[in-house]
Amino acid sequence: xxxxxxxxxxxxxxxxxxxxxxxxxxxxxxxxxxxxxxxxxxxxxxxxxxxxxxxxxxxxxxxxxxxxxxxxxxxxxxxxxxxxxxxxxxxxxxxxxxxxxxxxxxxxxxxxxxxxxxxxxxxxxxxxxxxxxxxxxxxxxxxxxxxxxxxxxxxxxxxxxxxxxxxxxxxxxxxxxxxxxxxxxxxxxxxxxxxxxxxxxxxxxxxxxxxxxxxxxxxxxxxxxxxxxxxxxxxxxxxxxxxxxxxxxxxxxxxxxxxxxxxxxxxxxxxxxxxxxxxxxxxxxxxxxxxxxxxxxxxxxxxxxxxxxxxxxxxxxxxxxxxxxxxxxxxxxxxxxxxxxxxxxxxxxxxxxxxxxxxxxxxxxxxxxxxxxxxxxxxxxxxxxxxxxxxxxxxxxxxxxxxxxxxxxxxxxxxxxxxxxxxxxxxxxxxxxxxxxxxxxxxxxxxxxxxxxxxxxxxxxxxxxxxxxxxxxxxxxxxxxxxxxxxxxxxxxxxxxxxxxxxxxxxxxxxxxxxxxxxxxxxxxxxxxxxxxxxxxxxxxxxxxxxxxxxxxxxxxxxxxxxxxxxxxxxxxxxxxxxxxxxxxxxxxxxxxxxxxxxxxxxxxxxxxxxxxxxxxxxxxxxxxxxxxxxxxxxxxxxxxxxxxxxxxxxxxxxxxxxxxxxxxxxx
Length: 668
Ligand code: SF4
Ligand code: SF4
Known about the structure:
Pfam families: CCG (PF02754), Fer4_8 (PF13183)
Bound molecules: iron/sulfur cluster
Domain 4Fe-4S ferredoxin-type: 281-308, 339-370
Strand content: under 5%
GO cellular component, one term: plasma membrane
Shape: elongated
Helix content: 40-55%
Keywords: 4Fe-4S, Iron, Iron-sulfur, Membrane, Metal-binding, Oxidoreductase, Transmembrane, Transmembrane helix
InterPro entries: 4Fe4S_Fe-S-bd, 4Fe4S_Fe_S_CS, Cys_rich_dom, HdrC_iron-sulfur_subunit, Helical_ferredxn, NarG-like_sf
Number of domains: 3
Number of helices: 26
Largest sheet: 4 strands, parallel
Strand order of the largest sheet: 2-1-3-4
């Protein structure tokens, strides 16, 4: 029980704390509201159950780093419970005789739970501080040559220390206060840890024990009053903002993708994101949701091979800019992003592998910022790597990213007796061949293998032949949205002209575009990847497979656009496993955690001059499994892994093959 004077002082301090908190919290929302594409807050709040579920279960923390995630979840659960505990402590301080179900089993469980949890949270936070300040754990830092601002360099460690100390002081003081109360009241079986600690107070008078309770209460509750206004400035704003991040309505089929720009809208003067204020509000919310855990860079192919890109640096640089210059931003400052969030080299180093989006426990999408910034570079600034001039020109004139004549698109099918839609549109399914499948000498063999499988299975398929154009993925990921949409619209027109309903393709990039991005532009088709299609043919006994006589050992490399973008992991593996005698071995990084080959996001068409080569890192991992065959299901992965095998001089021992080729070799 507080004295009357203490009660009055506490109320005054609560009012002061709330006034300052209102200012810091509203500053945060004013910053977010300055972005483009307003967050529909009403609809967002309707998704409250979703945000609450994520907050209570902390499920997103376990996607990667499950052990650390569990300790982090303990801290978050501890925080939640402590909101209740603090409320009861305040009531008990004001209402004479109040205690939470003092003589019932509920009260017993409550006190026991709080007793144990206090110690766990204290130790958990202590561990986090040791990890950051003593062990200097590599996962918690962003290494050069990544650009981090001076604000970040100074701020991150300081804020971690402030927050860690706050939690330890608060929880510790509350626990010590409970031990004084236990000593004063002569023991409590429901608080065994506080009871052990209370032995320290043997010999103190009842008055001294009461004084100890009061001092502990003021330290515990006073720390909260001091910390609440600081919340929006600390990384612990994520406690409130991360659930919002998941609640924002999202009609995209998969995360890590951008919405099509509307080129018909003549009022739009800025395409893409060149300044901070051009970012969508959701992107600004990302900065406040960030835990600064660096999970997103754990498997980022660019970061892990020593490039200038770290997805977490994008969010953290953004966040610390707001901490230092938030008021200028609210007042209308125009803030060019060039050199602030990331360097130009970093911007073009991204392979769009989507790992950062998959791994982020708070739903951030650094990849989306990168794609938006590339749009500004290409469409507003004409400032992009020189290699891309040729790529864009080829896409515009040849409808493929290389210099191949579009009239040669059907050459791969010579002698295979395959009809085009133009010759006979009455096929049951369209085989979308893709640029690599049409022109790349190595992948032409995959197109031929897949076509032969379909013929053996009696599938009545067609191709578009010379009427097919690049699906638009490369142009879109490189920021040339206008070119991307032109290609997409022309393809949709062609597909609709022939009344195409179902499409199968061997290219995950074509697959993802056709499946997830064409519908937004009016192209609704049923799309299958050839790995799904082949699996289906096996399941339906339309093809039968013979044993592998040479006991090959195979490892399968997950394409990012098949795996993380579309969750196709099982079907290619099932096809390999359907062949008796083949042994499938997994790489350390596979499935959701698969490491990119380095070719996505248009990287296929750019030089790689910084750090290690991504394809070599991945190929080494594949070779380390002891496999004699690296299986893939993507033309870009095929190229990158084949190059890797050659560079590592392993082409005598290891082959790179597509799933279709492996299956064709084993068809009876
Ligand atoms: S999409 Fe991949 S390459 Fe790009 S920033 Fe994210 S993890 Fe790195
Ligand atoms: S963006 Fe997500 S994964 Fe990356 S540091 Fe922030 S919270 Fe962690």
